[in-house]
């Protein structure tokens, strides 16, 4: 998907519906699109802030300006990649609000990444489990556990309007990156099935445009991943191969600078297939199992 024409609404509070405003952070990039989108939930009294974003003084200033004199009841994080959670601690100091949401997680990776690294400073005051809720004067947010992109990923359902804040699990501009060992393709697919079974009216992702036909998009994402899986099996059916050999055959025309990140996605599929007993590996070489 191409980037939209500038200027983008960076730093400006946009009213999306009566209970929801959005503020775009100034951190555009190949894996963040036009930037991280922070959501302010509530119209009267104490508000919730979802995915406060990166450690950026301009973004923090934009959030405080958008909040005005309104108190903050909760600062909620879908997961703690560095484009999502570092501003939580800064906003907590400025507002006195607790940080509530995903569990803390900090892993390092020596290989190429297709997303931001984890934020090791993330320290929530309270962790939400699947189905847990928090409320303000005119809003209730319910946590929907959606592991896959990360093992600690949560979405947040706004009960009053049928909106779902999907973080990086479902985005309108790109599929989510799944990078082992924490990223798990089987969990990701199960989470997609979980969302497809819901009746949410609209998705508000952390990157890219809102999703007005959520079940249709999720159905397409499930199909896309299964197509990739079939492609891997078809290629391995012609002979054993290493991931570096599969990537250019699967992602024809892809910028070679992105081959490492694509290889992580292929690895996630292969690990799932290995767990199902469909493929096996010997060192870096992958092959189909007979029968």
What does this structure look like?
- The protein is an alpha/beta fold.
- The chain folds into 2 domains: 13-212, 4-Layer Sandwich (Metallo-beta-lactamase, Chain A), CATH 3.60.15; 231-288, Orthogonal Bundle (Arc Repressor Mutant, subunit A), CATH 1.10.10.10.
- It has 6 helices and 15 strands.
- Strands 1-2-3-4-5-6-7 form a 7-stranded mixed beta sheet, with helices on one face. Strands 8-9-10-11-12 form a 5-stranded mixed beta sheet, with no helix packed on it. A 3-stranded antiparallel beta sheet has the order 13-15-14.
- Helix 5 (243-250) packs across helix 6.
- The mean pLDDT is 94.
- Pfam families: Lactamase_B, WHD_BLACT.
- This is MBL fold metallo-hydrolase.
- Residues 35-207 form the Metallo-beta-lactamase domain.
- InterPro entries: LACTB2_WH, Metallo-B-lactamas, RibonucZ/Hydroxyglut_hydro, Sec-metab_biosynth-thioest, WH-like_DNA-bd_sf.
What is the CATH architecture annotation of the largest domain?
A: 4-Layer Sandwich
Largest sheet: 7 strands, mixed
The largest beta-sheet arranges its strands as 1-2-3-4-5-6-7
Q: What ranges have pLDDT less than 50 throughout 5 or more consecutive residues?
A: none
**Over the alpha carbons, how many angstroms does the gyration radius reach?**
20 Å
- By DSSP (H or I, 4+ residues per run), the number of helices equals 6
Question: How do the SSEs run, as a string of H and E?
Answer: EEEEHEHEEEEEEHEHEHHEE
End-to-end gap: 40 Å
Proportion of β residues?
15-25%
Estimate the global geometry from the Cα principal axes: elongated
CATH superfamily of the largest domain: Ribonuclease Z/Hydroxyacylglutathione hydrolase-like
Q: What's the average pLDDT? A: 94
Kindly report the CATH topology of the largest domain.
Answer: Metallo-beta-lactamase, Chain A
Approximate helicity band: 25-40%
Q: Would you state the CATH class of the largest domain?
A: Alpha Beta
Q: Which structural category do the helix and sheet elements fall into?
A: alpha/beta
The figure for the number of domains is 2
Number of extended strands: 15
Pfam family, one: WHD_BLACT
Protein name: MBL fold metallo-hydrolase
Domain Metallo-beta-lactamase: 35-207
